[in-house]
Design a protein that fits this description.
By secondary structure, the protein is mainly beta. It has one helix at residues 103-109, and strands at 3-7, 10-12, 18-25, 33-39, 46-51, 58-60, 68-73, 78-83, 92-99, 113-116, 120-124.
């Protein structure tokens, strides 16, 4: 069974931090690019931060640059999103995904993202 499972979401005050985790099962992440996406109620899903498989190059949306950091640990078949200085507008369901697109195409257009988790809710209290 091929699955991605997110965890680590919750309620946090503005300015606080959370670390989201993405665990893969049924396949290995070594050769996949990984992306974190989010969707707020009534809004379109957007790419947050993505990391390549080949050289670990990254892309982050302007709205989270300097605050969020994506990383991966292939030995553990895991990916992470460290979120600092959280703002109320960061409130959303956060999804991890895996695919074969370039990091920019994946994050901006969701090209080649074949596997998706079911999401974890992050609520930043205002």
């Amino acid at each position: 069974q091929l699955q991605l499972v997110e965890s680590g979401g919750g309620l946090v005050q503005p300015g606080g931090s959370l670390r989201l985790s993405c665990a893969a099962s049924g396949f290995t992440l070594d050769y996949y690019a990984i992306g974190w996406f989010r969707q707020a109620p009534g809004k379109e899903r957007e790419g947050v931060s993505c990391i390549s498989s080949s050289d670990n190059s990254t892309y982050s949306a302007d709205s989270v640059k300097g605050r969020f950091t994506i990383s991966r640990d292939n030995a553990k078949n895991m990916a992470y999103l460290q979120m600092n200085s959280l703002k109320p507008e960061d409130t959303a369901v956060y999804y991890c995904a895996a695919g074969w697109a370039t990091v920019v195409a994946m994050c901006v257009k969701e090209y080649g993202m074949d596997y998706w988790g079911k999401g974890t809710l992050v609520t930043v209290y205002s």
